[in-house]
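User: Can you fold this complex?
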Amino acid sequence: MIFNLLRLFLLPMLLFVALFSGQGLAGTKQEIKIAYLTQEKQVPAALSNLEPFIADKGLQGALLGIEDNNTTGQFTGQNYFLRPEIVPLGANVQLAFSALLKEGYRLIIVNLPAAQLVQVQQLNNNQALLFDVATRTDAFRQAQCLQDVLHILPSRAMRADALAQYMLKKRWRHWFLVIGATPEDVLYAQAIRRSAKRFGMKIIAEKKWLHSYDARRTAQSDIPVFTQVDEYDVLVVADEQGLFGEYISYRTWLPRPVIGTQGLVATAWHRTHEQWGAVQIQNRFKALAGRSMEEEDYATYLAVRSIGEAVTRTKEVDASLIKAYLLSERFKLQGYKGKPLSFRPWNGQLRQPVLLAAPTSLVAVPPLDGFLHPKSELDTLGYDRLETQCQ
Amino acid sequence: MKIKVILLSSLLLSTSFATAETVFVTLEKDNAIAVVDPIAGKLLKTVNVGQRPRGIALSKDQQTLYIATSDDDAVIEVDANTLQVKGKLPSGEDPETFAIDSQGTRMYVSNEDDNQVTVIDLSSKQAIQQVAVGVEPEGIAVSPDSKWVVSASETTNMVHWIDAASNEIKANTLVDPRPRALSFTADGQQLWVTSEIDGTLMIIDVVSKEIVQRVHFSVPGLGQEKIQPVGVVIDNKRRWGYVALGPANRVAVVNAQTFEVEKYLLVGARVWNLAFSPAQERLYTTNGASHDISIIDLQEHKVIKSIAVGRYPWGVAVKP
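Assistant: Here's the predicted assembly.
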């Protein structure tokens, strides 16, 4: 059955590929085919309906990247093409990935959770270069290294380090850590503990949030009781899904700021960011997508732009040559954050400043002045070469 | 007695001559321009002009100031003497910078959000053409012989060579990431281009349109990532070139013959754009983050004064 299905799809696809490459030969343009693999998501539980669920996070950024690459391509003789593959809920992502490989895609942007990224990476066998635009998983940057995968978003460790640098600058060194119930919250808390140790912070108390998610009960009555611990400077909340974190601000026993996954957050991109030309891309994105640019959109945009930079500079379209260029010291990507972005060759993590943002204002952009590094100050955020087992 | 009178009058004459020079600075966040007497070292006044003024230049007869008010989507015409707004040019959306040809007949405007350059006929005040260029065009310059209009696109990382006769792109030069500003040498032989992200200055040969020199900057005790070259100007004799290094807070003095960096002059914070005095004995710098301008003496290569002007000074033009 599956074979029949494959055959059914494969034949027209082969025809399509033949036609496509025929066109490429006829014209003088180089064709660069990029696939974007993601899966539909169930609308997650949320605290309120204030922020609408966005179904196309990531896709719009990739489309903008393709548009920008093609603007450049008209002068350099290259044409970029995006093939979005959006797997329906419940369908098999691995099958879709294999199909993309069979169709000849060697540059694949993967917007999937950590477990699924590992599954598709295991099918890859050094065939394609994958751009992970979704995970923050520290393990992928530290011990469980994934061959042929570039990670665009900052890891949890990079985010926690960014917060810690700012806290050190403010001398808010005593932290009260509140951890949610999901496995991701536990990972976030681990990153916070690592950064606290790294930057000499003191976690004076750690508490798990086990209470109900009902606003009428939790908000006013439980949080003041829950937050009665020893003296501290800031409350660090680990609630990646946003199930209770927003309740904490203004309701703590002591009047203290909230940082972490709510309050002051560490992020790759934020709608309040407008320095270093960022206002230009914010405008272009809004015109295209009709909404603000999210982190995943920024990541897919950078993935497509990285490919564009590599192709423009090297005039090569082969994935292995693109990978070699991206991991070399020659690669410098303008990412609207004031510093050239590049990849850490040891774990494929994109080096980048991390934005610290409150809901309507940008507070700081670490790495902050004074945090020094022998090679790149950007490497003061996250796992440095000596702290990783990746090669 | 007679000698004294002559001396006094010549003294008066020379001071009145010197004070005739006026520096105009656009203030991005004040929606205004600052009018400065650089000899007296004084901010004379601040005049509202429109939203987010950035690029600024004088007409050939020095009687009109052109100012790009980006958020009003216009280039406005301001009387350089009365400072009254007297007109508006059809600049296209979000004009940031512009350049005027040497005859003073045409203006070329960068439309950053639309990836195009608008060509305006200054006598009829009509937009006569829009040229599609790369992503986020910013720096723009016209060659001294008015043959080439060169536009730098910040995200495409290219300078586009537009033939001024046909308004068509005839060549493209791939440059280092995020090219910001560009400037022709007075002899028209070279184009100097700065790369903000790579921290370089590129010298492009106008005939071959290829990069023939790359200048790197390094300031002891300052991280390489702080060096973000922006504005660039070269003196008429092609002896010295000057490059504003953004958050490095310095202007680099480049020997325009050997391309050695001879000196770094400490100015204000986030130095952005540069302009010569009419006889090129002084250089004015806009310092975006310290809200002032610096005056550099070019005989001594020394910073002699800084003058507070207002919030986020961006562009600068000098009227003799």
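The interface with chain A takes residues 94, 112-113, 115, 134-136, 153-158, 160, 169, 172, 174, 176-178, 196-198, 223, 225, 228, 247 of chain B (CB under 8 Å). Confidence is low (pLDDT under 50) at residues 5-18 of chain B.
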